[in-house]
Known about the structure:
Blueprint: H1 2-9, H2 12-25, H3 33-43, H4 49-72, H5 80-95, H6 99-109, H7 114-124, H8 130-149, H9 151-160, H10 164-184, H11 187-193
Amino acid sequence: MLDIFEIFGEFSYFGIFLVLIGVNASPILMPPSWIILTSFHLLDPSLNVVVLAMVGATGATIGRFTLKKISSLFRKFIGDEQKSNLDIIGDYLNRKKYGYIIASFLFGATPLPSNMLFIAYGLMRAKSIGIYVGFWFGRTISYVIMIYFGNAVLTPFLEIFEDRLTGILLIDGIGIGVIIIFASINWTVLITQRKIKFVKPKIWRL
């Protein structure tokens, strides 16, 4: 991993930008991008924190856009009931002026796994510029905070997951579970009656 930082670090902000696109275009098995940005800054403290955060957020947004496009191709494998549910929540967010902006901002500004959010957006065939605007601003803010605190945030996190692969797998597993639950919620009942009900959790139509 250190070799990757050194190679792309040679290209300064542009190299970091490329790394963030690649990491965020992948659905699973990638470390959180704030760890990558913080590591780049620790290796080269001369990098401006705000500029680094904005470059990282731009790369992350482009990467998530790519992930969303790829995810939309798998919609045909989803059961009809799940498709209907996803369309309902998509229509609901479309009717809300700031629905997509708020949802994306919350995922961008917090440690929540945004890869699964954009997979859900792809399966929903969501089309709104607010998806990317909210995510970019959320990511910029969170990156500035994470980079600024540097080791104070990074070291304890890595100590929790001494085996980094185990930590990544755990986070991805939680995210996949969230997507399954999300796709199995009866959104019609939740939106109209404020009650939580689930449809049969048959995600893939084989």
